[in-house]
Amino acid sequence: KRGWLVTGSIKLNNADGNADLSIPVSGPKGSGRIQIKASKAAGRWTVEQLTVTPDDGTSPINVRGAGIRS
Asked: Do residues 2 and 31 lie in contact, with contact meaning Cβ atoms separated by under 8 Å?
């Protein structure tokens, strides 16, 4: 069974920063890792990369939608 150890880093400097995270995922059709790269400017996060890389060796899947913000 896969663990849930998130790896990577989050760096913040007041209202700015960046995040580079890797999160293991699994389900009935397989397992893999979610990779997230995001930046924060003026208190607002913007996702720059959001991909799922399957453990079976198939190509990464880009799941980032246009203009994901929080």
From this structure: yes
Tokens representing residue 26 in the block: 């699994």
Span 1-47, pLDDT tens digits? 556 789 999 999 999 999 999 999 998 989 999 999 999 999 999 99
Cα 20 to chain center, whole Å? Answer: 7
Provide the whole-model pTM. 0.77
Element (H, E) at 49: strand 44-54
Identify the residue whose tokens are 């009935």: 28
Beta strands of the chain (E only): which ranges? Answer: 7-13, 16-27, 30-41, 44-54, 61-62
